[in-house]
């Protein structure tokens, strides 16, 4: 009894120590638990970019920069046609990603604007990244070949500037225009006629029709009827020029396409042998020369058909053009195409699609690509009878001078053009999915192809489309 009493303070002390230790353990445990709750947050995520936009698919990239202190259980993208999409809308699930991830969105509707956000989920909950938007591509429209209908779209639907339209129209009318059309993705956005002209009235293409000849030459080559690197005399026989035979044999079909035949361009538009005289070796001199028209004879000979018949079968009918070739120039030596403005627009639409018409490859893509890049070393701004914008220098018809800069500074650098006498124009702009047609009389003074009118016109077009 005395022993127990004498040790009672020790027992009390031990109990006190035990109680204090227990309290400390509980305090530290609670503190550690509270720290875990405080330090675990929602993830941090960024919607990085949208790429590879097509008619029905896109690729989305996101980045989980912090998991919030808790493992990610699910991540991906959600999207809808209305802002602020959530996972209750369309979504992908890329699993427990951390860091950068991508998703391929499919089964989208073409020509539709979508809003998209990345998302990530951890034990705390879900968080969304910043919102981006994108618009799926619109499939190319081709007007039916057996109808006069042609679908349209409004300037408002493209977010273009309607306020500047009248200024453009006033300028076109003042500058002796007869017609003007803008196609976007194949559909008509603007179509106007001036000075008594109408949608059914034919007009001449002048040298803009050179591109028809270039196209037919390519078609004949893909049909296995000719090779553009062959001598012209392989098809027309010798003495089709008055050049010495050795010099004549240097001239290939490609030289006629590229305007570097070496024949004298100062004698006039007569392309009879007596008027086709040697001035330089083929390939060494660029000159805008009507000798290109001999390619029509090459195609006729190679095909065993008349030029008109082969043209109608291979190009005119397949894309629904109307029109006819009429003789022009000295002794009727030139064949000039006449058609409605819409028929010219049909050809421009074929060119925008690199020779494809509604799924049918009228002209192979490789040839068309070659036709719309620099074809020789002298005039950077010339392909196979196509004019090219965006080059560092250019030559003009009837001149051996080289000018610095682009043909049309106000025009897109990827634009290729069919340009004809007195301002007949086909402008094709792949980056903007545009085809623009202008027919009429000369805007200012007589010209062979390019004029100051082009750059001023494009300034007014830009005021609408940009």
Structure commentary:
By secondary structure, the chain is α+β, with helices and mostly antiparallel strands. It has two domains: 92 residues, Immunoglobulins (Immunoglobulin-like), CATH 2.60.40; 310 residues, DD-peptidase/beta-lactamase superfamily (Beta-lactamase, 3-Layer(aba) Sandwich), CATH 3.40.710. Helix content is 27%, strand content 23%. The chain has a six-stranded antiparallel sheet, with helices on both faces. It has a four-stranded antiparallel sheet with strand order 4-3-6-7, with no helix packed on it. Strand 13 and strand 14 form a beta hairpin. It is elongated, with a radius of gyration of 35 Å. The chain starts with a helix and ends with a helix. 40% of the residues are buried. The N terminus is likely disordered.
Instruction: Please report the first level of CATH classification, the CATH class of the largest domain.
Output: Alpha Beta
Class by SSE composition: alpha+beta
According to CATH, the fold-level topology of the largest domain is Beta-lactamase
CATH architecture of the largest domain: 3-Layer(aba) Sandwich
List keywords for this structure.
alpha+beta; 2 domains; elongated; Beta-lactamase; 11 helices; Immunoglobulin-like
Describe the structure concisely for a colleague.
This protein is α+β, with helices and mostly antiparallel strands and 466 residues long.
Secondary-structure blueprint:
Elements: H1 2-39, E1 44-51, E2 58-66, E3 74-80, E4 90-91, E5 99-105, E6 113-121, E7 126-135, H2 165-174, E8 177-184, E9 187-193, E10 203-204, H3 210-222, H4 233-236, H5 245-248, H6 253-258, H7 294-303, H8 307-316, E11 324-328, E12 334-339, H9 341-352, E13 356-357, E14 360-361, H10 365-371, E15 387-388, E16 393-394, E17 403-404, E18 416-420, E19 424-429, E20 434-440, H11 452-465
Antiparallel strand pairs: 1-2, 2-5, 3-4, 3-6, 6-7, 8-9, 8-20, 10-12, 11-12, 13-14, 15-18, 16-17, 18-19, 19-20
């Amino acid at each position: 009894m005395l022993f127990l009493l004498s040790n009672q303070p020790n027992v009390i002390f031990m109990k006190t120590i035990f109680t204090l230790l227990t309290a400390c353990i509980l305090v530290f445990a609670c503190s550690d638990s509270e720290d875990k709750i405080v330090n675990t947050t929602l993830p941090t995520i960024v919607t990085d970019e949208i790429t590879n936009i097509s008619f029905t698919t896109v690729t989305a990239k996101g980045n989980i920069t912090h998991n919030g202190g808790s493992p990610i259980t699910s991540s991906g993208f959600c999207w809808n046609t209305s802002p602020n999409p959530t996972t209750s809308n369309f979504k992908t699930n890329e699993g427990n990603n951390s860091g950068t991830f991508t998703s391929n969105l499919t089964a989208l509707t073409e020509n539709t604007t979508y809003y998209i956000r990345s998302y990530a989920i951890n034990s705390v909950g879900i968080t969304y990244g910043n919102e981006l938007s994108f618009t799926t591509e619109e499939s190319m429209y081709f007007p039916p070949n057996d109808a006069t209908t042609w679908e349209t779209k409004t300037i408002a639907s493209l977010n273009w500037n309607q306020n500047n339209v009248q200024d453009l129209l006033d300028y076109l009318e003042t500058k002796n225009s007869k017609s003007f059309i803008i196609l976007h993705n194949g559909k008509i956005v603007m179509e106007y006629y001036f000075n008594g002209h109408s949608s059914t009235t034919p007009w001449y293409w002048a040298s803009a029709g050179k591109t028809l000849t270039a196209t037919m030459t390519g078609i004949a080559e893909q049909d296995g009827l000719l090779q553009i690197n062959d001598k012209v005399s392989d098809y027309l026989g010798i003495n089709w020029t008055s050049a010495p035979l050795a010099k004549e044999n240097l001239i290939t079909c490609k030289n006629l396409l590229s305007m570097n035949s070496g024949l004298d361009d100062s004698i006039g538009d007569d392309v009879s042998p007596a008027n086709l005289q040697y001035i330089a070796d083929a390939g060494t001199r660029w000159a805008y020369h009507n000798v290109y028209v001999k390619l029509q004879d090459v195609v006729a000979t190679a095909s065993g058909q008349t030029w008109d018949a082969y043209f109608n079968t291979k190009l005119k009918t397949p894309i629904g053009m109307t029109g006819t070739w009429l003789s022009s120039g000295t002794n009727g030596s030139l064949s000039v195409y006449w058609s409605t403005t819409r028929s010219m627009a049909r050809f421009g639409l074929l060119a925008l699609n690199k020779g494809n018409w509604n799924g049918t490859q009228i002209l192979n893509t490789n040839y068309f690509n070659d036709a719309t890049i620099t074809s020789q070393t002298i005039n950077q701004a010339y392909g196979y009878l196509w004019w090219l914008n965006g080059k560092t220098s250019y030559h003009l018809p009837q001149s051996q001078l080289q000018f610095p800069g682009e043909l049309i500074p106000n025009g897109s650098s990827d634009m290729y053009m069919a340009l004809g006498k007195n301002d007949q124009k086909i402008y094709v702009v792949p980056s903007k999915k545009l085809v623009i047609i202008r027919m009429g009389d000369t805007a200012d003074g007589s010209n062979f192809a390019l004029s100051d009118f082009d750059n001023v016109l494009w300034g007014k077009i830009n005021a609408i489309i940009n």
